[in-house]
Amino acid sequence: MRRILSYILLCFCLSGVLACSYARFFDGSAMSPPSSEWQRFLKAYAIIKTHYYKPVADEKLIDDAINGMLQGLDPHSMYLDKKDLSMITQLTTGKFSGIGIEVLPEVDNLKVITPLDGSPAQKAGLLPGDEIIAIDDTSVEALSFREAIEALRGPANSSVKLTMARAGMDKPFTVTVTRRDITPQNIKSRLIKPNMGYVRISTFQKNTPQETAATINQLTQTNHGPLKSLILDLRNNPGGILQSATGVADLFLDYKTLGKNHLIVYSKNRQGEIVYSAKADDADILNNIPMIILINKGSASGSEIVAGALRDHHRAKLVGMRTFGKGSVQTVIPLGEDAIKLTTALYYTPDGKLIDHIGIAPDVEVKMVPYSKPDVQLERAVKLMSSP
Fold first, then answer.
1. Are the C-beta atoms of residues 102 and 303 closer than 8 Å to each other?
2. Residue 105: which H helix or E strand, with range?
């Protein structure tokens, strides 16, 4: 499979792409490769044009050359042609259908990061860490990136058969998933018991900070008084819009008590310069009541930013399992009618901890057995909250 690696929500809502922004990076100052390297490239180009068994369009060769440069850099840099850009525009409008799953394409499979809450993939039993090895009996290894995506996409009410591999299982298994229009259930909440609230955020969308604040206010009304503790569930939350994630973190931080280091997250470029930072600039909506954040290996990107910020500022304890480790910044840079998505910086928590490829470890590790009931991680969090 072509190694065009990128987070992609196969419902299709690209959380990684949603965090990207168009920017004009090229200023003409980039260094050109040595003339000898240009000669090698041009020679290969001429050989293909002259001796390949059938004619090849110049546009295809250039597209493939750009793609080849990007796909060897890291899992998230990639070439975006006109079709890709059109798909991104469609996805950001929220009009899409599919199976509702986020995956990381690998060499010969698609690794499941997380299924969306309430999605067909979740209802079919897919779990973080599962691997898709065939789609409708076609090996993923034999498919290009776009072919794999197109095979998983389809109209609502149509079905797709997936051949899966799962850690701890000796043999692959198959599951048939019926596609449907995806409307993520972004926030769920309830009172676990008097004075103890529970809020689950499944993705960070445009209005998630405002919706989270409204949810907490509703819980306070239902409780007939201020909450005394809160459990924030970010398990299997793949991220989303960066500004929404930082906005949620800011809800629970009081900038007046943080002193000079009221950072939520910052990023550094190749020169080690800070090119982006988000800071707490509001009061704590919960007045510093005890908080626990639930995390697992399906918590990625924006979830890791929130968890890292609240833990570094001693605002919340983390319970569950180590997070995924997606802490890089991708910028979409136009190339005329197409573009490239390039990793331009890495994220750091307020205390300077790198997120990418490392993840965030919980303060209290609680492993989750698939399909186990009751929810042992949530139960542990409730017990910790209830302890004197």
1. no
2. strand 101-105
Strands 138-139 and 364-365: unpaired
CA distances from 53 to 47, 49, 144, 298 (A): 11, 9, 22, 46
Question: Is residue 91 classed as helix, strand or coil in its secondary structure?
Answer: helix
Phi (first) and psi of residue 374, to 5 degrees: -75, 180
Percent of the chain exceeding pLDDT 90 equals 53
- The total of other beta-carbon atoms located within 10 Å of residue 25's CB is 13
CB 76 within 8 A of CB 85: no
Q: Express each pLDDT in 18-41 by its tens digit.
A: 334 444 455 544 566 778 888 999
Work out whether strand 131-135 and strand 110-115 pair parallel, antiparallel, or are unpaired. antiparallel
- Given this model, what pLDDT does residue 118 score? 79
Give which of 117, 123, 114, 357 is closest to 236, Cα–Cα.
114
| Residue at token pair 């639930």 | 294
Nearest to 312 by CA among 361, 375, 240: 361
Cβ atoms within 10 A of the Cβ of 113, count? Answer: 26
CA distance 110 to 99: 14
Angle at 368 between CA 314 and CA 175, to 5 degrees: 130
Peptide bond into 173 cis (omega under 30): no
Which residues are part of the catalytic machinery?
Answer: 301, 312, 326
pLDDT digits (tens, 9 = 90+) for 157-169: 999 999 999 988 9
Tell me the helix, strand and coil percentages in the chain, rounded to 5: 30, 25, 45
Q: What is the number of H-type helices and E-type strands within the chain?
A: 11, 20
Backbone angles phi, psi at 288, to 5 degrees: 65, 30
Q: Return the H-helix or E-strand segment holding 303.
A: helix 302-312
